[in-house]
Design goal:
This protein is α/β, with parallel strands linked by helices. Helices cover 28% and strands 27% of the residues. Strands 9-8-7-10-6-1-4-5-11 form a nine-stranded mixed β-sheet, sandwiched between helices. A hairpin with a 3-residue loop joins strand 7 and strand 8. Helix 2 packs across helix 5 and helix 3 crosses helix 4. The protein is globular. It starts with a strand and ends with a helix. The structure holds adenosine monophosphate. The site of adenosine monophosphate has 23 residues, from helix 1, strand 4, helix 3, strand 6 and helix 4. Adenosine monophosphate binds next to helix 1, strand 4, helix 3, strand 6 and helix 4. Its cofactor is AMP. The electron transfer flavoprotein serves as a specific electron acceptor for other dehydrogenases. It transfers the electrons to the main respiratory chain via ETF-ubiquinone oxidoreductase (ETF dehydrogenase).
Length: 249
């Protein structure tokens, strides 16, 4: 069984994101980019299934600019077998990404597609669900445990106030939550090996998809900055301030 893992190139989660002066978006020039953290978890889960003898091949796919090759190489260095880059310099919204992924699924016929639950740049949390709808496949979103059977997969989902386990007929879509696993670091020998693994190059047109946006970003703004705190000399002073100034006691 093949597993397809879509991986997105996003601003590294350690970077303090800055809004462009004209409010049209966030600054991307000279900013460190990395694989979306939820996608690292997706690659890790696929690798564990392969190591357990339940999958035969892991394909990582990224839709984005040429530099997304680096993101694919990261997945290959972790242990995935081959990559597909669907190159575009346009901003591709989740529906267009899902349509491209549908095309790849039809060519590759994987038993599972494991995606991140959301990309940390757009926070859409849409692509996996849209892909499931386009394919008519079952979906297990926000997975914190994946248990693969012969023709079904049990997905434990993180829901409000607890966990829910659902059984999906395969082929199926799974999206990863934070607690599913802890992704491995790529070792130096594996980083070297990854350089020789194949990456096929495609375009949106190969899948008959156009990137024409359906949304227009009207404004992007920084969060309001916090006001400075006050140091108090004693508990009595704190209580008095809470009572008389903040009015919370
Ligand atoms: P989103 O719906 O944008 O929050 O993204 C959810 C997941 O879809 C991500 O964690 C990725 O697994 C996948 N995804 C979204 N955009 C892309 C992309 N451009 N290339 C590859 N995978 C993507």
């Amino acid at each position: 069984m093949k597993i397809l893992v879509p991986v997105k190139r996003v601003v590294d989660y350690n970077v303090k994101v800055r809004v462009k002066a004209d409010g049209s978006g966030v600054e991307l020039a000279n900013v460190k980019m990395s694989m979306n953290p939820f996608d690292e978890i997706a690659v890790e889960e696929a690798l564990r299934l392969k190591e357990a003898g339940k999958a035969t091949e892991i394909i990582v796919v990224s839709i984005g600019p040429k530099q997304s090759t680096e993101t694919i190489r990261t997945g290959l260095a972790m242990g995935a077998d081959r990559g597909i880059l669907v190159q575009t310099d346009d901003i591709v919204e989740p529906l267009a990404v899902a349509k491209v992924l549908k095309g790849i699924v039809e060519e590759e016929e994987p038993g599972l597609v494991i995606l991140g639950k959301q990309a940390i740049d757009d926070d859409c949390n849409q692509t996996g669900q849209m892909l499931a709808a386009l394919l008519g496949w079952a979906q297990g979103t926000f997975a914190s445990k994946v248990d693969l059977g012969d023709s079904t997969v049990d997905v434990t989902r993180e829901i409000d106030g607890g966990l829910q386990t659902v059984k999906l007929n395969m082929p199926a879509i799974v999206t990863t939550d934070l607690r599913l696993n802890e992704p491995r670091y790529a070792s130096l020998p594996n980083i070297m090996k990854a350089k020789k693994k194949p990456i096929a190059e495609k375009t949106l047109a190969d899948f008959g998809v156009e990137a024409t946006p359906r949304l227009k970003v009207l404004k992007t703004a920084e969060p309001a900055s916090r006001q400075a705190g006050v140091k108090v000399a004693s508990v009595d002073e704190l209580v008095s301030k809470l009572k008389n100034e903040a009015g919370v006691l």
